[in-house]
């Protein structure tokens, strides 16, 4: 790209635009959305832009626009708040830096192949994993170190915690693949996997609105794609957390089978309670119950947990441990209580796990029922991730075409990663911003105005 400035012409290539960039604080010549430069710089310097371009190049052809640049430009726009392909025009006032943004028709041509080629998706996934490995090494080298999940004062050092969850995206028009949802709406029901504690989006499967919540095949596919996104040296210890959709026999057996001599996989999934389970709960003596704890380690005043495995025949049939939790029901629960719950005055929930009574090696106290329960209940943070995903371009899908929307979902995941990586690499010394959600970062950083200039090549 050629840029003319002060009567001189010089060239800035696709990923070296920042070599002669300086940001001013004098309040003159300001432009909005200054955070775009940080996000694009993160993509370029971590190697994401080049890796994506190389993945597309393997398809052959020689498009005018580097497809890696198009996807990254769109991901940056999504991180800034774009909700349609046309809104990539948010970057127009950065034309001197990034070049003129691609048109929405160019964006569409870049996204559509993602939904039509499984091979391209595989190449992109491998590229993302290579970049993620580099980024995680950089994060580990920061002063704050690698962000392991911490619950009740215990850091799960060495353990990558994956959360799987589905969400609903409403469609407001006749869109390919949209259908009735289980909540009687109309749209899509994508299934996602993310890493706890960082808001990285490791995998997401776009599904029709009628897709089931407990479809084991979909869960296994997304889980496999998410694990492939974890760099090799971090795959030795994985904890998988899933809500009630994960309590299918096929998925439980699949997760147990993920254990190898080189990899330890533990899981906690919400268990659908049957009459058999309630019969076992009724047999628990009063002394079996112990106080539950909150995620901050404080004792929960109105919740208790107990081991149910020895009393519940379903635990032996499935080859899992069952931990039961009881709480005083809220007014909202009153109309849904079972006879046992009405009789005892408690509402019950069960989680199934393959975590043994010895707990996690190297983490004292991880065998305690209250700790296991607290770690699984921390899965509730997935609701925050759902909000993050929707804030990152997934409140609605921009195209009537399925294949284009598949590409958009991928780019929204890239946007979530860029947001997370920029926070963890550049804001690690600011505790609040390092864990801030997209809307907060937009308000505090991405949307701020700033002045900038580009020094011509050869100038001192």
State the secondary-structure class. Answer: alpha+beta
How many individual helices?
Answer: 16
The order of strands across the largest sheet is 11-10-6-12-13-17-16-15-14
Largest sheet: 9 strands, mixed
Query: Could you tell me the radius of gyration in angstroms?
Result: 24 Å
Query: What distance lies between the first and last C-alpha atoms, to the nearest angstrom?
Result: 22 Å
Low-confidence stretches: 1-13
Number of strands: 18
How confident is the prediction overall: mean pLDDT? 88
Give the overall silhouette.
globular
Portion in helices: 25-40%
How would you describe this protein?
The chain has helices at residues 35-45, 48-57, 67-80, 95-98, 104-116, 118-140, 216-229, 249-256, 275-282, 313-318, 339-344, 369-377, 382-394, 402-426, 431-434, 438-446; strands spanning 2-5, 8-11, 21-24, 150-151, 154-155, 160-166, 169-170, 179-180, 186-188, 191-195, 200-205, 237-242, 264-271, 290-293, 299-307, 321-327, 347-353, 451-454. With 460 residues, it is α+β, with helices and mostly antiparallel strands. It is globular, with a radius of gyration of 24 Å. The model is unreliable at 1-13 (pLDDT under 50).
Give me some keywords for this one.
460 residues, alpha+beta, three-stranded antiparallel sheet, 38% helix, 19% strand, disordered N terminus
Short description:
The chain is of the alpha+beta class and 460 residues long. It is 38% helix and 19% strand. The longest helix has 25 residues, at 402-426.
């Amino acid at each position: 790209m050629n840029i003319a400035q002060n009567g001189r012409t010089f060239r800035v290539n696709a990923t070296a635009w920042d070599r002669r960039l300086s940001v001013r604080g004098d309040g003159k010549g300001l432009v909005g959305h200054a955070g775009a430069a940080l996000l694009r710089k993160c993509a370029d310097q971590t190697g994401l832009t080049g890796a994506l371009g190389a993945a597309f190049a393997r398809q052959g052809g020689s498009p005018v626009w580097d497809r890696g640049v198009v996807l990254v430009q769109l991901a940056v726009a999504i991180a800034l708040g774009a909700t349609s392909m046309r809104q990539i025009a948010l970057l127009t006032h950065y034309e001197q830096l990034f070049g003129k943004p691609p048109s929405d028709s160019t964006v569409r041509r870049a996204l559509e192949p993602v939904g039509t080629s499984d091979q391209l998706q595989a190449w992109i996934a491998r590229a993302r994993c290579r970049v993620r490995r580099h980024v995680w090494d950089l994060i580990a080298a920061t002063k704050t170190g690698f962000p392991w999940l911490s619950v009740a004062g215990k850091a799960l050092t060495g353990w990558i915690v994956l959360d799987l969850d589905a969400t609903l995206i409403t469609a407001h028009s006749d869109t390919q693949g949209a259908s009735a949802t289980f909540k009687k709406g109309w749209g899509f029901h994508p299934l996602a996997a993310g890493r706890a504690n960082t808001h990285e989006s490791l995998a997401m499967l776009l599904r029709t609105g009628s897709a089931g919540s407990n479809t084991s095949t979909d869960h296994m596919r997304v889980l496999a794609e998410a694990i492939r996104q974890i760099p090799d040296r971090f795959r030795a210890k994985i904890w998988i957390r899933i809500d009630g959709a994960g309590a299918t026999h096929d998925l439980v057996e699949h997760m147990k089978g993920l254990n190898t001599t080189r990899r330890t996989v533990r899981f906690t999934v919400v268990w659908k309670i049957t009459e058999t389970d309630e019969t076992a709960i009724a047999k628990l003596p009063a002394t079996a119950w112990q106080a539950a704890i909150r995620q901050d380690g404080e004792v929960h005043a109105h919740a208790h947990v107990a081991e149910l495995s020895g009393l519940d025949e379903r635990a032996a049939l499935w080859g899992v441990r069952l931990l039961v939790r009881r709480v005083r029901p809220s007014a909202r629960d009153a109309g849904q209580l079972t006879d046992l719950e009405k009789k005892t005055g408690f509402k019950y929930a069960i989680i199934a796990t393959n975590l043994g009574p010895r707990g996690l090696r190297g983490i004292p106290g991880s065998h305690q029922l209250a700790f296991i329960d607290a770690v699984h209940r921390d899965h509730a943070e997935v609701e925050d991730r759902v909000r993050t995903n929707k804030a990152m371009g997934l409140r609605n899908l921009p195209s009537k075409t399925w294949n284009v929307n598949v590409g958009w979902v991928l780019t929204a995941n890239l946007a979530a990663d860029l947001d997370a990586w920029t926070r963890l690499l550049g804001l690690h010394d600011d505790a609040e911003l390092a864990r801030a959600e997209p809307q907060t970062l937009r308000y505090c950083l991405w949307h701020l105005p700033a002045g900038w200039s580009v020094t011509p090549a050869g100038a001192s």
